[in-house]
Amino acid sequence: MNDKSDSDLQKEAEDWLAFNFPRLFELYQHSNKEAPENYFNFKDLFPIAYLGAQAYQEIEQILSRLDSTAWKELSKKALTGVTADDPTRRYHQLFILLNEARGYAYLLDEGYTHIDFIKDLTGKSPDLRAARNEVTALLEVKTLNQSDEDIKNENLRNNQAIKIDPALTDKFRSRIKRCIRDAAKQLDRYSADRKIVYLYIEMESHQRTCFESYIQLKSFIVDQNRNALVVTGLAYPMMFRF
């Protein structure tokens, strides 16, 4: 018989993960492997079941930019999300935590060299602080996921065609404003020369391929730049780049 045992399949999957995505593998190694809800459960994950290889490659590339100290801090936080399987949103909490690495990468791209995650158990402080020569910066990462209503509608459509509506809804705009307002409160707890809100946005399903929606989003984000610089990352960067 050619059927492989579960242990053989797990070994094969772990070797694949370790070779292609070493930092994700390290996260898996420190998690509760026996938990059935573990995101890296080889029976569900392999072959890749959730994001696709391109998305995993992007995440790994970003995580690889963190120095050893920063990765240790972030992976410690992210462990709580590895086994947090929400009935509706699945492993969104894991990726909200990992998205903090996007803020770190942004600061690197801006020329900052001393970048640290701020240790804070209250959740009221910004995520990162950095320095570049004599300039100091604070950065808070906020993830704006697909709304509950859109998830419900997407499930009800059952592969039916999507009606495109380019206009950003008032609800969507309000969610963005709320994210920025909450981030600003966290940033205001500290002093720095620059205060940055990094918004990672997942567009609603009916607007992901609509160029006009992204144009509206860009204009709306520009209008929010007041007390803090607001920069944006997109969950579907192949659709549009700011």
Task: Supply database-style keywords.
single chain, alpha/beta, globular, 5-stranded mixed beta sheet, disordered C terminus, 5 strands, about 240 residues
Largest sheet: 5 strands, mixed
Query: What is the CA-CA span between the terminal residues?
Result: 54 Å
Output the number of helix runs.
10
Structural class: alpha/beta
Computed CA radius of gyration, to the nearest angstrom: 19 Å
User: How are the strands of the largest sheet arranged?
Assistant: 1-2-3-4-5
> What does the overall shape look like?
globular
Percent in strands:
5-15%
What do these coordinates show?
By secondary structure, the protein is an alpha/beta fold. It contains ten helices and five strands, in the order H-H-H-H-H-H-H-E-E-E-H-H-E-H-E. The chain has a five-stranded mixed beta sheet, with helices on both faces. Helix 1 (6-20) crosses helix 2 (22-29) and helix 5 (68-82) packs antiparallel against helix 6. It is globular, with a radius of gyration of 19 Å. Residues 237-242 have low confidence and may be disordered.
